[in-house]
Fold:
Amino acid sequence: MSQINETQSNQLPSTGTPTQRSLKDMPKRWAPLIGAFALGLLYALLPEYVTIGPSWLPLALISIILIPVILIIYVRRHRPVPIVPIRVLLFIMLGVVTLALAIGVALMLKTLPGRTQAQSIQLLRTAGLLWTSNILVFGLWYWEIDGGGPHKRFMAGHPAADFMFPQQVDGNTSGWEPHFFDYLFVAFTAATAFSPTDTYPLTWKAKALMMIEGIIALVISVILVGRAINILGQ
Structure:
């Protein structure tokens, strides 16, 4: 009987220890890092009247924060990556860019009464940059908070945690893994439909972030774009 059990165990697929799996298959962070850098570029394109300080400042801060993150990932690519320092740096970055986005929308509202018809194109361009930045910011937030971050999601087998994707309804028996684009899509639908579509927030963190994103998107879409259309019609 022991020989039979040994034979059966030898035929089972070897999944490796959690550390081995994390070294080989741990989710890549390059997509969200590129998204964060693109966010800084978008903010740098904003006019000065909707920014606090120079418009390139968030891009510089993002670059300063991303450099040590990239170095940690690259230097330790064959060893376990220290998750806590990376998450702390990324949360600092997200806090900075979220604050910059909120300030940009507030300053846009403050300067709306002084906008003229000649400035309507610039107003629409600024609203578009803020709207796109809103999607990128919260796509990054969703990627980082869901299930405690990409590393913990991977180690747990990607069950539904803060968000439930359609592929996770049955308990994710197929082992489906959400990528950064999936969270970016969630942010896009929240900014356009102002509500969850096929992916549902399950925790107060996810719901609070979706509420904040929806408020910002509503302000940009209804008030700013509506004002610009009114200027065009004058």
Q: What stands out?
A: Residues 1-26 have pLDDT under 50 and may be disordered. The longest strand covers residues 163-164. Residues 89 and 220 are 28 Å apart (CA to CA).
